[in-house]
Amino acid sequence: MLPSWVAGATALLSLLIIAAFYPSVTNGGVLRFEGTWLPQLGLNFTLRMDGFAWLFSMLIAGIGFLVVVYARYYMSEDDPVPRFFSFLLAFMGAMLGIVISGNVILLSVFWELTSIFSFLLISYWHNNAAARDGARMALTITGIGGFCLLIGLLLLGNIVGSYDLDKILVAGDVIRGHSLYVPALVFILLGALTKSAQFPFHFWLPNAMAAPTPVSAFLHSATMVKAGVFLLVRFWPALSGTYEWFYLVGLAGIITLVLGAYFAMFQQDLKGLLAYSTISHLGLITTLLSLGSPLATVAAIFHMVNHATFKASLFMAAGIIDHETGTRDMRRLSGLFRYLPITGTLAMVASAAMAGVPLLNGFLSKEMFFAEAVETHADSILDRILPYVATLASAFSVAYSLRFIHTVFFGPPPTDLPKPKPHEPPRWMRSPIELLVVACLIVGIIPAVSIGPFLHTAVVSVLGADTPQYSLSIWHGVNLPLIMSAIALVGGTLLYLSLRKYLATCEDGPPILRNLKGQRIFERILVEVSWRWARTLERRFGTRNLQPQLRWVVATGFLAGLLPLYLSGFETREIAFSGIDPAFAAIWLLGICLAFGTAYLAKYHRLAALVMLGGVGLIVCITFVWLSAPDLAITQLLVEIVTTVLILLGLRWLPKRTEGLVEAISLRARFRRFRDLALAVVCGIGMSFIAYAVMTMPVPDAIANYFLENAYSQGGGRNVVNVILVDFRGFDTLGEIAVLGVVALTVFALLRRFRPADDSMDLPEQQRIQNSFDEDRPERSAGDTVRDYLLVPSVIMTWLFPVIITFAVYIFMRGHDMPGGGFSAGLTLSIAFLLQYLAGGTRWAEDRLRILPLRWMGAGILTASATGIGAWFFGYPFLTSHFQYVELPLIGKMPAATALLFDLGVFSLVVGSTVLILVALAHQSIRINRLRAIDAARTEEG
Amino acid sequence: MELVLATAIGVMTGCGVWLILRPRTYQVIVGLSLLSYAVNLFIFGVGGVKTNVPPILVDGVPNSTLADPVPQALVLTAIVIGFATTALFLVVLLASRGLTGTDHVDGRNEPK
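^ inputs. structure came back:
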């Protein structure tokens, strides 16, 4: 079993390392490690170990090691053991992280990690539905708690001005006086109370018992559930001592203390009993911390250690019983002492410690608790009832401890065990329990010598100068706490005796309350929130129709634009009106007519609408020329060509739609149209208004000048737009061409599986007419007309091929200094290819031209990226460009910037993507023949 | 000039909005094209309306008189990306039409 050896060695090694740190943390010493993480956000990977963290780390690593040893024998050979031990170690690391984080955000990260590993460990036997449910519930509760904790810690960091734990701990007065104190406190407490399974969040812990027992012993009794109370102790100097603290923490603690103990009495599952007992003991610690007195804090820290030792050993003992007999149901278990004498003895000692019997560690901390309960801290009902509540809960805990031992180990031999012949487990499986029980005894008998110094180190690190005088001894004379202990012991025993008959047969859970299950309430809430509410919201506000969605988007956009205008009083600030050029007005009059025409015709006359749309595009293009944007004009013109061809190719696959003579339009449709029209009109007017306001505003001295001044000196180009694209903002351009590439590939992928609708499968009407014309005439063969269609233009197009290529190269080369560049050159070249397809048809073009668009694209993106990376080799950031003039024979002086190389990449990618998109679409007309053949074959077969 | 351009932008926006609210996919794609013209012109107009001063450095001409190159660079990018989205939308439109047999934007003629 290699995994267990590795895990054991790791745990042991960390234990030794932590132990070696002891000298540095005594007398309030603090060990710090600081690594930069996100210093600009005030987040550093700060580790910090003081006495308290040391004690807790020892507990984690020590019990971790023992649990690994135990699990080595507990886990079956069939279980995926490596997974188990890796989760266990990962949890241990996360838990240590919580304890020694020096930065509260880091702490919250580790906090979440423990929740996640707890989830993974509870659901380790994931074939078991109870394990899955328990794991999910634990994760939901502790996850929500972790989120609240993060909010709380952010608030805290905001109050103090630093996320560093040391700074927060000394700022207690500032924090308590701040107006955000209460929210921060509430959120942090939500985190701590959920993690430590305090009322009303306690119900996840019993459900987590579906985990393997070593996990229950380690996570759900000794360490993870202690993270909550650990946090309370950690922030005790910063947060405690207020009424809010007392009431919130105290109320949760006292209710948990009593309810947990009460519920524990009535459990039939061994682990269930221990789980509720754990809840109750955590409640005890919480109650102690609520009191806000230094002595109570000493007792709380002491009890954390004591509880970890006896509860871990009890869980392991329960695991052995389960392992040997095959059941954990106390109604079936009885008289096991004759089979398991050693385990039985160990369990007896441990549960005596749990009950608070003298000479054991549980007794000492419980005495301290009683002593504190009697003291008056904050005079209120809560404070006055505390001694009685404490005695009652203690009596309950005596009763369930007694029940645990008496039911399982005494009485007649068991009759219906799943494994009928139980016997003592292997020596090494028992040894962790032995070690822990011996620790209980040693601490219980000679506390001042054994645990004393370590406890003192921990207490000093939390309380500092407030460290009180306390004495760790078994005998303080006959005083009130001792009497309370005696009452609890006697009362608990009597309680058990009176309930014995009932408990031997009753159902799981306490009477009456057993029907009120936190688990069920939790599930109800989950269903309500995540199912019903979500459904209702979807029904009310959701739609699967595009039109209402777009309508909302447009309306919201309109309002979002209107609001700032309204707030500024619709003022256009300054008029810099530059007159109206009649020619310009005239072309836009045409443009406006074309736009209206497009909108009007797009439904029934697609081709006409497309032509008009192209007209609008052309006028936009002229506008760019007119208004000093030659680069835009070139690009717009080329894109216009490609887009038009693209849509033309697509028109073939759209359904035929003819305008009916009389269309009956319903009133609703009329209303809808009117509403859309109104929306369109107000949007148009609004846009006009904003555009006019913006354009007549004086242009502020913006970044434009920076680019104009530095384009030549730094980028080595005179065409500022091109220099911005390939040099100053080269990274944006790289992203942009990547998008273009992704789109092209998506188009390609979508069209590979494209299948047109049935009514588009036939030959287009025009081709049918042309073919029948051919068939009617004997001297023509079918397809002649199609072939000869546009004969003269197609010859011209073929001849134009080299001319356009030369033009593309020209545009590319002049790009840095004159209008042009990679984009426009790429589009030009793809238009050259496109014309060949148009001239001769797809088959003809592909017989003569082999364009490999994917290679073009790949080469493009690689060239562009490589140019960028190249800058690294000269010690510059990504995409830094370099330029100089080179003397070329024949051509003369040439500017050679690495930006040109980048532009080459842009060029290549644009060619590849455009051609890929167009060719993929053009190929559909050929593919359809194959589809038709397949369909025909199918019909024959069928 | 500004008045003309602003009116044109408004008209194209209005027509575009009207079209993207229509039920047929083709109307939507045409509407999006119109909208992108309007938006491109708008962004371009932010830099101010100047004639005959392209942002190309010529010795002897002061830089401050040239047109603002930044909106131009933005719009150049927008034109190319606009082409890409049009292509993508066209193909999605065709695939939807092939799969559902209708060119309604929801893939079915009658809203549920």
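Chain B has one domain: 2-49+67-100. The domain at 2-49+67-100 of chain B is CATH 1.10.287 (Helix Hairpins).
thumbs up if we can close this ticket
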